[in-house]
Protein: SAM-dependent methyltransferase
Amino acid sequence: MPEFTFDALRRYPDVEADNLFAVDASDRLILDEAAPHLASAGTGEVVVIGDHYGALTLGAIAQHGATAVRVHQDPLSGELALAHNATSTGLEGEHTNHELGEELLAGARVVLMQLPRSLAALDEIAGAIARFADPEVTVVGGGRLKHMSIAMNEIYGRHFADVRASLGRQKSRVIISRLPTPGDSIYPVREFNVDLGLWVCAHGAAFAGTKLDIGTRYLLGFLREMNPDAVTAVDLGCGTGILASALARARPDLAILATDESAAAVASARATALANDLAFTVVRDDALSTQPDGCADLVLLNPPFHVGSAVHPGVALKLFEEAARVLKPGGELWTVFNSHLSYRAALTRAVGATRQVGRNAKFTVTVSTR
Structure:
């Protein structure tokens, strides 16, 4: 077995670049603060949540002797990166992936966690740990100081009686929580959007929660113009499923697939479909990797322009290429994006002829024909 080193870890298949890293100081701090707890943990008693690319999971296994580690990562790209890094470091077969819930957390005595940016996501995760983990569980959650707030301590305080923060190190800090106070879950939350006439359901980590993202709102205004001959459609990066739901209601004869790499988004979109009595398929996917070439007449996309905390076009460009692959000849990709990003040239290269169909003070909507 090769000697484990953090330097060997990669982000692949997620976007890789010189300014994007697979490991940061918070990973190392979490593992250092958790060391005495990991030393006393038995087989299957260590759980890792929110591991970006495998540093926490593989570090706990290789450096601290953790065995049968259970892991939950919201983005599928994180799961795939962890699997790749486990293989490359000779640590494959030492962890298992689970949804957030009892199967992940039952009997857990140590939980290592990269803190999510969203307070709602932290609330849902902390609540699940308090409900399902061992009453003696210790939770070591950390992150970069610039992404942390005092509100995180308050969220933990809803679910644990003992909450304390560590000293900072290399612009990182951890929060250690003990003595869970279990309660009922409120997730997924739901809210009726009067403008859409739709219930929107959201788990904690779903982007925008139950609110209507303003880019999505603008794209919705063009539904009636989208490929009138379409039989099959894809909501790519579906989030809570608002685009798929609105399309299903406006055009009930369409066969609609909604995809997202986020486990929370997929669960939210399924709940949104159920709440509105709508029929469309929702799958968790790395872009559209499980879909065949030339399977769609229409793709709708509101792409992200961040990779983690960095502004980077990599994810959007990957989604453009995947949309091009699954579109049938003559199929249409409808995209909304912040106007300053100037994606039109990239869309033309990836998909085909692209024209602007709408522009307001902040967003541009284009249609690209395969």
About this structure: The two ends are 48 Å apart (CA to CA).
